[in-house]
Specification:
Layout lengths: L4 E10 L4 H17 E11 H7 L5 E6 L4 H12 L4 E6 L4 H7 L4 E5 L11 H10 L12 H4 L4 H6 L2 H4 L2 E4 L15 H15 L2 E4 L5 H8 L8 E3 L6 H10 L3 E4 L2 H8 L4 E5 L4 H4 L9 E2 L1 H8 L24 H13 L1
Parallel strand pairs: 1-2, 1-4, 2-3, 4-5, 6-7, 6-9, 7-8, 9-10, 10-11
Helix pairs in contact: 1-2, 1-5, 1-12, 9-15
């Protein structure tokens, strides 16, 4: 067990995005602050993601606007040109991060090349960075008391108290090429009806997506007192408030799922194209619908034993392996236990 260390240390964390990975960095920060009483942390982070964690205590943020990368690089260089950190954690592999990483001067630099990422959850990979400075104990603290604010205006405007009890669903994942993580939209309309008819529970839909996908999704959801559509209508803070009020959460692999996990909500994660043991809700897989191994066998034509850790299934048919009855079974497990 690690004892608290009175040594003064300066640490820079380079992790710009995405929302899910930003939630994973919070326990890393908590662990550093627990172990080092005098810990000066600088976090280089994306502009959007900063909105989620900006109220955390004792962190110096350097906020990068991805739409103005060159300006961000120049500003960061001016800010850091005479600063040398004791430790720099290069926790992102993107080209933008590599460019930014060259500006940061550290006595000790730790990259993904320095750690073992085999068969680990993404969060455990981040904790492996800390092992390089002899921190072994994990502080699984998402500091939600610092991040959450009771936004009564938002809650009252949307009548969320009157809507209770409700379940929150984000049907969307990030828009990338060959990113086949989304369940068919019409399934969510069926699940919303099932929740109300079987359990008298309403549904709130949240998430951020393009107007095209939002409009496509709306075709499958009946407008009624049983549902509330907040898609593209919340900030990250407001989204966290909705999640806090939820009985549980349903959705594919997304940043919102990991935000729900911060709040220790029961989560019905929908996984077929990615391995939930790597990217699922951390230590919260009890209600996950896991069709990954079946998808690997069907679409990649190999066994799970012969599959590279973290490999994705790149077939739009994979998520169809998740059946409505699979989700209904998990709903029953949550509500009856």
């Amino acid at each position: 067990m690690n004892k608290e260390n009175n040594t003064s240390i300066s640490i820079c964390i380079l992790r710009l995005s995405a929302i899910g990975d930003i939630t994973h960095i919070i326990p890393i920060v908590s662990t550093l602050q627990k172990y080092y009483k005098k810990c000066d942390i600088t976090w280089i982070i994306g502009k959007t993601e900063y909105q989620l964690v900006k109220t955390l205590d004792n962190i110096n943020y350097i906020v990068i606007d991805k739409n103005k990368t060159l300006d961000s690089i120049i500003g960061m260089h001016k800010y850091l040109k005479e600063q040398k950190f004791d430790v720099v954690f290069h926790m992102q592999k993107s080209l933008r991060s590599k460019i930014l990483g060259r500006i940061i001067d550290g006595k000790i630099n730790v990259t993904f090349n320095d750690i073992n990422t085999n068969n680990n959850h993404v969060l455990d990979n981040f904790f492996a960075f800390l092992e390089k400075i002899n921190i072994q104990k994990k502080e699984l603290n998402w500091q939600t008391n610092k991040i959450l604010t009771n936004d009564n205006d938002f809650i009252n405007k949307n009548n969320l108290n009157d809507l209770s009890p409700f379940v929150t669903i984000n049907p969307f994942t990030s828009e990338r090429i060959n990113n086949y993580r989304e369940w068919d939209y019409d399934n969510y309309g069926t699940i919303a009806e099932y929740l109300f008819n079987e359990y008298s529970i309403k549904t709130v839909f949240i998430g951020k997506t393009s107007e095209e996908r939002k409009n496509s999704f709306k075709k499958y959801i009946k407008v009624s007192s049983k549902t509330l559509n907040l898609i593209n209508r919340t900030s990250l803070g407001e989204m966290l408030n909705v999640l806090k009020m939820s009985k549980f959460y349903i959705g594919p692999d997304s940043g919102t799922l990991h935000m729900a996990n911060m709040l220790a909500l029961p989560i019905i994660g929908l996984y077929a194209t990615s391995n939930p043991k790597r990217t699922g809700p951390y230590s919260n897989l009890e209600y996950t619908v896991d069709k990954y191994e079946k998808a690997i066998l069907k679409f990649s034509k190999k066994s799970i034993e012969n599959t590279k850790w973290g490999e994705r299934v790149r077939d739009k048919g994979a998520m169809k392996l998740i059946l409505l009855d699979d989700v209904k079974l998990m709903i029953k497990k949550i509500l009856i236990t």
